[in-house]
Specification:
By secondary structure, this protein is α+β, with helices and mostly antiparallel strands. The strands form 12 sheets. Strands 3-2-4-9-6-7 form a 6-stranded antiparallel beta sheet. Strands 27-26-25-24-23-30 form a 6-stranded parallel beta sheet. Helix 4 packs parallel to helix 5 (372-381), helix 6 runs parallel beside helix 9 and helix 14 packs parallel to helix 15.
Length: 829
Amino acid sequence: MARTTLHEGWHLSATRGPVPNTVLGRTVRAAMPGSVHLDLMAAELIPDPYLDRVEEELTWMHRTDWRYHLAFDATAAQEGERVDLVFDGLDTVATVTLNGQVIGTTANMHRSYRFDVRPRLVDGANELTVDFASALEYAEQREAELGRRDHVYPHPFNMVRKMACSFGWDWGPDLQTAGIWKPVRLERWHTARLAGIRPLVSVEPDGTGVVELHADIERAAAHGPELELTAEAGGQRAHVAVTTGTATTTAVLRLTVPDARLWWPAGYGDQPLYDLHVTLITADEPDEPLDTVDRRVGFRNITVDTTPDETGMPFTFVVNGTRVFAKGANWIPDDHFLTRITRERLERRVDQALGAHMNMLRVWGGGIYETDDFYDVCDERGVLVWQDFPFACAAYPEEEPLRREVEAEARENVARLTGHPSLALWNGGNENLWGFADWGWPEQLAGRTWGLGYYVDVLPRIVAELDPTTPYADGSPYTPGAPVGGIHPNDQDHGTRHEWEVWNRLDYTAYRDHIPRFCSEFGFQGPPTWATLTRWIHDEPLAPTSPSFLLHQKAEDGNGKLDRGLAPHLPAPQSFTDWHWATQLNQARAVAFGIEHFRSWWPRTAGSLVWQLNDCWPVTSWAAVDSDERPKPLWYALRDAYAPRLLTFQPRDGRLALVAVNDTDETWTGRLGFERQTLEGAVRADAKVELRVGPRSVVTVAPDDSLLIPEEARREVLVASAEGVRAIHTFCEDRDLAYRADALSAQAHAEPGGYRVDVRAASFARDIAILADHVADDATVDDLMVTLLPGESHTFHVRTRHTLDPAALTAAPVLRSVNSLCPATPEIE
């Protein structure tokens, strides 16, 4: 097998559409893989779409057609040789022409394409063109032919197999990319090749690791020499003869590894990976492989327990026989321009998930099947992957031509991802079952198909055939066994639940109104970090209602919901920098509130996946990490809320209780201390009890009534602490608490690599932050959202290449807390 990448020498031009004069007739160099937007940016023909209101200026690109052209030298196919032109990904509606002859058409971003070019390839110069038609116009045409199906945003994204959020979402831009977004190459081979391998990996009760390898083999001709398939892993080797006489065949061999080291999710054990080497040879020439494939596998068994219990139907991941509380977040494409996402960037992002004590990421259904790099990184780090099929928030036709595309992409990607130990679930899609139940679809559909056949037949059948080692769910939210009719798909007692009444309509304290079996979506908005915001948005003055800021707020009534969510809890902001800090803080508070509630109900609640970990562009959103890779205050709150050991005050049986959560394999023992004290530190009641929490379990402690009844609610807090873990309960909302605005004193000093900021509290100070990116765009801080009792101090470490005035790190808008939102210190009554 000889592979030649075709990545150099491409050019791009517009061929049809409302093209502006600055672009019309121009031909520019094209990067490969790449996209039209990036090539035009590189040629300085369009500004960066993420800047200010540039997105609005580029809507002409939605209805423009494009041509990629490459002249390359090659040799014609030799006798007995196969030559294939392979595109790993085309975005999206494309016509491929080689030397003036059309060799194929495509309409699916989520799959690869292989064309036999032996009849077209010539010696010497060859001409390859890829013409991209408007995906929007293609989708509109399919909608006219098949009949409209409801979708949540204006464009009919459900009529074309393209990343749904490319057409805009409530956190993403409407840019509608086009281009050759994955590698393209010529493959020359003879006799036979490995068309694909599927390692089905499991562990037997005696600890033996098993790789059942399925290899799809394509022959250059129907008849040929005898073939042999071999596989090696963990010092073991297996081989099998391949049946002859057909152009394509599947060979299966079984490789066993005694006493295999088990792969575990983060926090539960190690992540050993085994190199799997697969070789295809002829019996006559065993030392000259026809083709080879190298993969890494991990030995583990994963199931989802949905056995009915006294409450309803759980949804609990079980890894190697151990029940796991899924601590994680939803994942969207990490950049709207997918070709800019490198393995290194994925490593940084997954490391941020791990740094916040997560063990699961859900690849959401409005995005893509991620690249191999993503799953490799999750394998290495022990992050479980919940993988949606790409269906989201819409009714999807089940007629042709979409049906065959759905089957083709599902088969390709399920086969591609088998063997990744991180892969924990295949999920039919996002909110489509819920949409049919609640969003008026039956009336609009009038009997037309809407995707149910995909979710309950096509997709589970493909998973059962190609990847039986991974569980499948019909959708999210989802009640197992009841996709339509019967139990509501978003019922709290069955399967998975999305909690969006909070954020859309209710205060975040309403998280406690439900005890879901698994909450796979919930969240709250906040703006990006200051440095990211001001890099991309340049309104003068900058305000929540300024034009560019509003364009980067995609949620319906987003700012109104931010303000209404803020008002019951925090003092009213007096400036834009106050508003920016307060809304970020309220986002962190709201999400942590939900997580602590969900974790306190383990094992009844078995998972908490925040919407969302990451952003694809600079935007006010639900993300914990913004598009410039900077963690927002929410990320630090997640790190605390998902900590292996947690103390949290929760209502139980009509009174306040303390819940101790131990998500480790060791028993948590120690002295648990309670203090009801004033904001100035005077202790008015205290108690000590022995704490013992078994591994992976939860214990509830009922404090004495003397601790729960304050003398002055505005001036007291309740503190619980054990073995370095602490929880604090305020008896009224922050806006009503008698905070001292001057509670903090701070000093900053230079140290190698940056600055040390020492902060001391003279009075109760809550959620202290050093927002160092206000003064240095590269600044990072090791800690945030720190609460201090009177007399306590904390040291923050700021890393930056810049030389700063230390005084800038100890004053607003850098040094912030809840106290800093208070206009003045209340008088002591």
